[in-house]
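Exercise 3.2. Students should predict the tertiary structure of the chain below and write it as structure tokens, then compare their answer with the key that follows.

Predict this chain's 3D structure.
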Amino acid sequence: MVLIKKQLVNSTRSGYPGINGRKFITIHETANTSPGADAQTHANLQSNGFTASWHWQVDDKEAIQSFEHTARLWHAGDGRGDGNMNSIGIEICVNRDGDFKKAVENAAELVKKIMKDEGIPQTNVVQHHRWSSKNCPTNLRNGSKGIDWADFNRMISSARGDTSEGQPKQPVTTPSAPKPRWTKVTGKWSGQTLGKGEYGEPVRQLQTKLSNNNPQFYPNKQATNNGIDSYYGDDTEDAVRRFQSYYGLSVDGLAGKQVYNKLNSNKTPTNSGTSLPNTVYRAIRPYPSGSGVRAVQEALASVYYYPDKDAKNNGVDGVYGPKTADAVRRFQLTHGLAADEIYGPATKKALENVMN
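Answer key:
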């Protein structure tokens, strides 16, 4: 069984108030390939007040718990959606001096234990991608390290440990989803309610607005044309839910008048193709400002290093002040850079690598 340690964080600024519903287990990868960026390093980051937060970190040697499962943390990128409100977050370390396959095996054993402790079914062990469309856990999603998501699920089914209590293992079966019946809708979308199972021009207009919003809510960032296909399926419903959660709307996955009005009141798009500036920013008065700073802030927010999570638009205001400098510092700390709070060529390259 994987070695389990506790290094619990006593903080009220690492998540949302209330009790985590513990209905899901969300699997992440740290995206930090720096040598030594193991479970202990990430546990120490959380102990030192890192803004993002997750319950566990696992490497090829051990699993370390940073928060009780009852804590609602900032790990899923879906605001007050099920990812943050009702799931337990596990980060698998990808440091290049570690054994990734062994880290995944250890994560599978940990997941099996949590499933038993919290009564969570294997069908509710999900990828970070489910909540915010972020390409995470990247290596398990693309199989680039010789092990993929299907392998991980097989590991969970056969994980060692005391979870079976001598009982024979039962096969894990997932019922095949019924094929949806699509209903065609026509005309222009002007706020009439759209929902799962519909297709046509109004759905395409909704998807386009979600993709152009600031911040963007792609129906499926990994698909052709960001998943803009005129079909209101699971990905579009998920994008609508994340949009509703982000803007404090009723979260039901239906695109009606509230969603329409909010999309049309937030018309300034974030151009995902905008390159990061080739310059240097320091938080020295008068603070640097302008579109270049905004691009840096938006890049940081897109990978969950918010300039100011408690401010409007997560503090994306085009001004390189102390909070933006702190976000840069936190990003630098987790990516093996000098934590000098200065945006420059090395930070630009690391940001581009994480976003791509």
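Discussion points: The longest strand covers residues 24-29. Residues 160-180, 267-273 have pLDDT under 50 and may be disordered.
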